[in-house]
Amino acid sequence: MDAAFTAEQEEIRRTLRELVTKRCGQGEVKAAVRTPAGYDAALWSALAEQLGLPGIAIPETYGGVGCGPAELALSSEELGRALAPSPLFATAALVVPLLERLGTDEQRSELLPRIAAGGLTAALAVPGTGLATALGLVGDNLGDWSGGGRAGGVQAKLSDGVWRLYGQAEQVLDGHSAGLLVVAAHTGGFARSRTLLYLVRESAAGLVRTRQTSLDETRPQARVELRDVEAELLGDADDADVPGALAAAGDTAATVLAAEAVGAADRALERTVEYVKQREQFGRAIGSFQAVKHRLADVYVQVQAARSAAYYAAWAAGAGSEQAGGLALAQSLDALRTAASEAVQLHGGIGFTWEHEAHLYFKRASSDELLFGPVHRLRARAAERAELFTTVTAPEPAAQLKAAV
C-alpha cells in the first residue's frame, strides 16, 4: 500500500476545499438545509460542472471521471469538514455501485451518464429502519428484512409483465428529492421468497414522498409510500445476487462515511483549538491549561487513527477487498463523537446553543451511528467476517486416547 496521495488526488482535495470553504459557511449550510431539496442546488451544479463529483467513481465509458473509492472518499472528507448537505452520498456511494453491479447494459447506459453529469440524483429505499442490516454492516443480510407475508415492508408483484410495488420505506436518505429511487422489495411468496431491487422514477403514479424531521438536518430523510407503483426490475431476476451487491455497496458506503466523519471530526477539533486559544479565564487563554491540552491531544490522536483507518479502507476497496469499511466507520464515528463532545464542552455555554455550529457536528455523529451502527455492532460484524473468534471444538477424550495409542 502506498499511503501517499497522487498529484491528481491532492488537486481534487485542494480545489474542493477552496470551493466548499467559499460556499459552505455556517450560514450557508443552515440556509441550504431549509430549502425544499435540503441542499444548495447551485453548489451541487458547481460540484458537477467544475469537478465532475457525481461521476467521480463512474467509468469514463458512461461519462464519469473514472476514478475509484479513494477519490470518492477523499471528496467526502472535504464535504464532511463543512457538513455540506448534498446528494453525493445517497447517489454515488449507495446507488451507483448497485447500478454498476446489477444493472443491465441498457440501464447503465441510460442512468449512469445522467448521474455523472449531475442531472439525476438517486436514493436507496429500504423498508423499515434496517438500512445498516440491508447493507450488511451490522449482520447477515440474507434474512427477511425487506418484509414478507404479514411482516410489512415493500411487496413486489408481477402482473401482465409489469412489476408493481406496494408498501412503505422509512429513513430514505434524500428520498424526497431524488429523481430515481432504487427500492428493495420482497417477492416470490413463501415458496421462492427473496429480495430484489427495482427502479422507480420520480414521476411514477402512486409514489408519495414526505420529508421527515431528522436529528441531523444536513442529512435529510424521507418516508416513501408506494401505492400500486409501476417499477422496473434492476438487472435480471434469475442472476441477481442482491445480498452480495448490497453488501459490496455497504462496504463502499461505510468507507465514504468513515472519510466524511474524519473530515467532520478534524474540523470540529480545529475550531475548538482556535477557540481555546482566544477564550481567556483567570487572565490567560484556557488553551494554556494543561488539562485542556491533554483533552485535545487525546482527540487529535483519535482523529489521526481514524483517518488512517479510513484511508486504508479506501485503498482496500480500490484493490477489490470488501472487509475494512465497517471497521473504519466504527473508528471514525467514535472519533467524531469524541471531537464533537469536546467541542461542545470546551466552547462552554455558547457550545450548547442552537446558534453555534458545535451541535451540528454532535448531531452528525449521533445520527450516523443511529443509521449505520451502533459502533459495537459494526465492530462485531467486522470481527465475524474476519473470523477472529471462530470456535474450535475440542476432540472427545476417547478420540484423544486413541490418537495417543
From TrEMBL:
Residues 256-385 form the Acyl-CoA dehydrogenase/oxidase C-terminal domain. It holds the Pfam family Acyl-CoA_dh_1. Keywords: FAD, Flavoprotein, Oxidoreductase. InterPro entries: Acyl-CoA_Oxase/DH_mid-dom_sf, AcylCo_DH-like_C, AcylCo_DH/oxidase_C, AcylCoA_DH/ox_N, AcylCoA_DH/ox_N_sf, AcylCoA_DH/oxidase_NM_dom_sf. The keyword Flavoprotein applies. Residues 6-118 form the Acyl-CoA dehydrogenase/oxidase N-terminal domain. Its cofactor is FAD. The keyword Isomerase does not apply. Belongs to the acyl-CoA dehydrogenase family. This is Acyl-CoA/acyl-ACP dehydrogenase. It comes from Streptomyces durmitorensis.
